[in-house]
Every structure is written in structure tokens, then in C-alpha cells.
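Deliverable D5.2: sample structural annotation.
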Amino acid sequence: MLPGSALFFCSIYLNRNAPQANPRTEIKLGKESHVITLTVNGKESTIDVDPAMPLLWAIRESLQLTGTKYGCGMAQCGACTVHIDGEAVRSCIAPVSRAIGKQVTTIEGLSQNLSHPLQRAWIEEEVPQCGYCQSGQIMAAAVLLRENAKPTDTDINDAMAGNICRCGAYPRIRRAIHRAAALMAEGKAR
């Protein structure tokens, strides 16, 4: 692990050299692009990109699903978390090729109308402050609750440790996860 100042400067360097989102240009990292079919949020889409391109950029730029955020570009903050076949994955470092033939779920895929228990709990607990990291937080929490329907505070802290909230909303995040677990239990009891 790098000391704080080294990590900060490394992050600035890497972010400066990362592909920048520009809606007028198509991001292609290599010399070759390929027609690739991805299944994102249950919908098949064909895109023409380099298979080595980070999945994040394919999701945001090619598919125009902007809920998944670019945070650090080094898989350190969790803002870009999506699911690939149900596994929480940092899309900023996962190549598009990793998602071929698999089901990708982004924050937009949890529900169309904010009815997912995690989204409802996030709203009820007023979790977001700036909101930038929240889609990644929710996607990580969805995997936690699928694997552990009644997590303890320690379970939540351990599962969410890789998702950074610069605003420090961790107590609200924890409360929201507990609330979502209760909402999910109510839904199963009916």
C-alpha cells in the first residue's frame, strides 16, 4: 500500500492519463476495435470497441448508461462497481472482453423506478451527500445482501470496506443496508 501522499499523486497522474469522457468522440484504446455484443441490464447491445477497453467506458460512452461513475481508475474507490454474473466488479479495470457472454448489471438495472429495497432504503435514510459514490455503494451492498440476508455491522463494514465515500456517509450507509435487509425480509414473508 502506498503512503497517502504517494497514492494521491499516483491517482492524479493516472487520472490525468486516463481516457476522458467526451460525448462527441468514441473512446478506443487500442489500434483495433471489434464488434462486441454485451448483455447489460437484460438488454443485448452491439458496440464497436477495443476488447481491452475498460468496461466502464463502454457502459458510459457506448451504451450511454451514466449511473456508473469514474472515480479513481485504479479499482481503489468502488464508484465504478457493477455486477458481472452477480459478482461485484470494478468496471474501471475490467476489460470489455471479461463481460462477453455474461450478464452485466449497472445501477440502472436494479430497478427502473427506484423500487429496489436498497434504493428505497438509501432514499429513506437520506444517505447521499454529494452522491457521487452511491451507485457503487449500492451495487456492492446488493451483493452483500444477496449473500447475507441479515448482515451485522461488522459484516457490512467488511463488505463495504473497498467502497470509499469522501463525504463520510458510512453510518447512513450502514443504516440503509440494515433497512434494505428488513425490507427484503418483509417482501419474502408476504
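Annotation notes: Residues 1-28 have pLDDT under 50 and may be disordered. The longest helix spans residues 170-189.
The annotation will be released with the project's public dataset once the embargo ends.
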